[in-house]
Amino acid sequence: MSFRFALLARYGFALCLWFLCAALARADAGRLKIVATNYPLAYFAERLVGDRAAVEFPVPAADTDPAYWEPKAKGVAALQKADLILLNGADYEKWLSRVSLSKLKQVNTSAAFKDRYIHTEGVVVHSHGPGGTHAHAGTVYTTWLDFEQAALQAQAVAEAIAKKRPEWKSLVMENLAGLKADLLALDADLRSAAAAQPNKSWLAFHPMYDYLGRRYGFDIASVHWDTDEMPPPQEWEALKHTLAGHPAKWMLWEAAPLAEVAAQLKAMGVASVVFDLCGNRPREGDFLTVMRANVENLKAALR
């Protein structure tokens, strides 16, 4: 009798477990799937929907620049299965024309200000990091470094989600208000700090800070250096010529440069200031904490 009871109990437990797994699978199948092509957009989506949707950011390595990521089979599969594909626009997704994706799923989050894209001339081809060789020319893609533009991109994400899930609209728009308030607080803080500094001349290690410069009044001259390399003597000589007509006191870096590079810049009267682009998911914190740290770094330099 006890053996039969134990057998029935085990069978009943297995059956309940099967029904539970089936229910969870059905729920997951009906869950909104969002894929973002860079971390800022993934962060915006996560802030807007919480755990109500599956937000995926398929770029694999934290040291990979998503702007130079090329989706392989796994990444393409994730994009094709998505209900929404959040694109940065501004020529960020250079692979887009080579991958078959439904246009109905695609959301160009910077479309509202595409007439304000910044375009650069000249081509500098070089190689750094696991992304391989690439060029800095054409459309500047780091649109979110202008926090007002970042707020517009967040709004585009919110509107796309609300269109897919009308029943979430009230919640999404409430969350959008909080997200925009955070972004615009950063914007106001940085504008105030920049306005108080009469010297607007800056250097940047790469030509990726143009939107930051335009929004906050910095006159930025870009070089093409890497954070983990010592520039050759001819680059230092070229920098001296640049400084003769562009008296910058600061150079923006995505990450801290080599100590010997920072020391040589300091000897030339140029301080190194880290302003993380945050295109990929940070190892610690989130988009907002990284950007707050960036703003504090700039404010400290400007004092």
Describe this structure in words.
- By secondary structure, the protein is an alpha/beta fold.
- The chain has two domains: 25-119 and 140-178, 3-Layer(aba) Sandwich (Rossmann fold), CATH 3.40.50.1980; 198-302, Rossmann fold, CATH 3.40.50.
- The chain has helices at 2-29, 39-49, 73-81, 147-164, 169-195, 210-216, 233-245, 259-267, 287-302, and strands at residues 32-36, 53-56, 84-87, 106-108, 119-120, 125-127, 133-135, 138-139, 201-204, 219-222, 250-253, 271-274.
- The strands form four sheets. It has a four-stranded parallel sheet with strand order 2-1-3-4, sandwiched between helices.
- Helix 2 links the parallel strand 1 and strand 2.
- Helix 2 (39-49) crosses helix 4 (147-164) and helix 5 runs parallel beside helix 9.
- The radius of gyration is 24 Å and the shape is globular.
- The N and C termini lie far apart (83 Å).
- The relative contact order is 0.11.
- Residues 14-27 and 123-135 have low confidence and may be disordered.
- Residues 1-27 form the signal peptide.
- InterPro entries: AdhesinB, Bact_metal-bind_prot9, ZnuA-like.
- GO terms for molecular function: metal ion binding.
- Keywords: Ion transport, Signal, Transport, Zinc, Zinc transport.
- This is High-affinity zinc uptake system protein ZnuA.
Residue runs with pLDDT of under 50 for 5 or more positions: 14-27, 123-135
Query: How many separate helices?
Result: 9
What portion of residues belong to β-strands? 5-15%
For the termini, the CA-CA separation is 83 Å
| CATH T-level fold name of the largest domain | Rossmann fold
Mean of residue pLDDT values: 89
Based on the coordinates given, report the CATH architecture of the largest domain. 3-Layer(aba) Sandwich
What is the count of structural domains? 2
| Strand order within the widest beta sheet | 2-1-3-4
The gyration radius over C-alpha positions equals 24 Å
* Overall body shape: globular
Helix content: 40-55%
**Helix/strand order:** HEHEHEEEEEEHHEHEHEHEH
| Strand elements, count | 12
Q: Which class do the helix and strand fractions yield?
A: alpha/beta
Q: What is the name of the CATH superfamily of the largest domain?
A: Nitrogenase molybdenum iron protein domain
The major β-sheet equals: 4 strands, parallel
CATH classification class of the largest domain: Alpha Beta
Pfam families: ZnuA
Organism: Methylomagnum ishizawai
Protein name: High-affinity zinc uptake system protein ZnuA
Family: Belongs to the bacterial solute-binding protein 9 family.
